[in-house]
Automatic annotation (TrEMBL):
Membership in a protein family: Belongs to the class-V pyridoxal-phosphate-dependent aminotransferase family. MOCOS subfamily.
Single GO term (MF): molybdenum ion binding
Superkingdom of the source species: Eukaryota
Annotated Pfam families: Aminotran_5, MOSC, MOSC_N
Full protein name: Molybdenum cofactor sulfurase
Upper lineage: Eukaryota, Metazoa, Ecdysozoa, Arthropoda, Hexapoda
Amino acid sequence: MEKSLKTENKIQNEKCYVYSKEQASKIRCEFSRLKDLCYLDHAGATLYSEKQLANIFTDLSNNIYSNPHSHSSEFTKDAVDIVRYKVLSFVKTSPDQYSVIFTSGATHALKLIGETFEFNGGTLAYLEDNHTSVLGMRKFASNFRELKVEEAFNVLSNPADSNSELRNGKNGLFVYPAQSNFAGTKYPLSWIKTVKCEALNHLFATPENWYTLLDAACFASTNQLDLHQYQPDFISISFYKIFGYPTGLGALLVKRSSENALTKTYFGGGTVLMALSAQNVMIPKPIIYEQFEDGTISFLSISSLRHGFDILQTLNLTPDLISLHTFNVAKYTFANLMEMHHSNGTAVAELYHDTKFESVKTQGSIINFNLKRPNGNYVGYSEVLHFANLNGVHLRTGCFCNPGACQKYLKLDPDKVQNQFEEITGKLVNIYVYPVKSCAPLAVKGSWKLTHIGLEYDRRWMIVNSSGACVSQKKIGKLCTLKPILDFSRKMLKLKINDSEISMPLEPEENASSNANFCNSKVCGDKVQGFDCGNEVAEWLSANLGEFGLRLLRQCDFTAHTSGRHSTQGEQTLMSLANKAEYLVINMRTAQWLRERIPQDDLLCLTLESILLRFRANFVVDFTEPFVENDLAILLFNDVAFKFTGHCRRCQMICIDQETGEKSKEPLRTLSKELNGQMRFGIYLSRNDSLGQYYIETGSSVKG
Ligand SMILES: *Cc1c(COP(=O)(O)O)cnc(C)c1O
């Protein structure tokens, strides 16, 4: 966080405790694995308790669960049915009113409704603030209509009275979330009734017969869903959002009186009483969940749910208590974020909200915000995530599963969203090749060839000491002043230190593979093999670097020897002498960010360029924002694709001035301080398709 925060502002400090001290400490015991981590991603996935997991383990290790379709398995079937009852009583209803269809999650429940709802030419209407999985239902309806939030409040506040004869059998389906997964807004459950009373027919020329699908995936995790009071036709939920475990399990609840609006076409194992193979004949099972649960249900996961319900009881936790507790935490955080200002008076956080967190009836426990710098610029989400993680706070960042709300709150133009969608873009500013390992780089102007072992000529040579081990700048600081120059017209490699220089052939001589000058060395524990480049250059190196017995090795080109060999060992030897993977990338903006944090007195010689050189990257990319590189999985340099393989952890090597070989405390000290000792800086990339001719060029666009 910026250091210039105004501290004299009175921060809201009013805390309301919902749980008693004993209860709170019992709860804390169940999550001892969190240690000091502050987990704030319960809307993404909540955490399972330790006792809950232990009970599941005991249950599964002591009982014999078998496939519920095997007739000998009444035990499993009963266990599953008991869970159906528990689910129903959890949402205050009974098997007379609702059926539970187990699904792989809320998304699957939504999809099932999309596939089976008899629209009969009717409309799919949905609130703009909806999960992506709801938008996917559009494929199944012939018409769809998005309702803006304000419009929904207007239209759904008064029921209509349409002439039922005009309906033509069209079925309309209205889908909305009980709680927004974006801003935590709770939408009125009274809408269920007004929709039933045809309020939406105000919007359509021909009246339709309306049903409601309530997406309760987000709501049910921290609220009491009360199906006694409100009776949507269909409800989707995911259990990991309520109990943390098991994942991959959700449910579609169907109001029994609305079952006939659904028609199942596909039938899978377990859903039919009888089916013929040659003729198109089958008799579905009579009970709706039996028809809808295709294949073998996830019976072990379903049985495990019981322990989720039980643990709430053990801890005396009711949904209402959870609701109030999480609301209070959110309210407290909201108030504090609102209050925080930079010293120039500008707000630190921009919050996206519909309510002012005044009532648990209209607001759930989700807070959505952006952070801003004193000059009003946004802090990118990668940076926020990075620092939250460093400080033991687990957050959710990005804008993924609710496109409508993203557009609404961030006031994004849909066309722009389409153009940019979550793409990280940048420009390749510099390409550096390090022909001799640990020596000065060659800055590439224009394009450079990629080979199967990295950039052409990158780390093809290395200097070894009298015992044959590769030397680095840690041992000989002056190495960075050794400048290799590739002279392609004369096919020579020239080495230069100050005014002294020496040349040798760029490619090994024809007879070089004779055993005489073939030798082994080690780079960071990995064995590498190479050819000795002779006495003349060895003596020159020793004289100019001031160490006895140095020799130059050129790495073997293993292509001929290892073609067709794909063992991991083979691949390792194929890698050039670079430390880890083939390419190291740094983001210029992250370096700039670091430089801005170095104390003035130490900044004297630390130009941005000097800092960039110390990180010894192959590619320097300008991503326009710091830290975005840390989250990329795939990078495209023009059309050449690279894969993320790891983060680069830094050591005192970055303290060596690459022009002079002198050592300083910075930038390591600041890096360590700012990143709490976790010195990740830069990412390693590798390429999958190593066949073909590829070139990479400075100035090319980079997409992640
Ligand atoms: C999480 C969520 C979903 C999707 O749930 P899955 O478990 O990913 O299938 C749908 N709607 C809302 C409101 C959610 O919060």
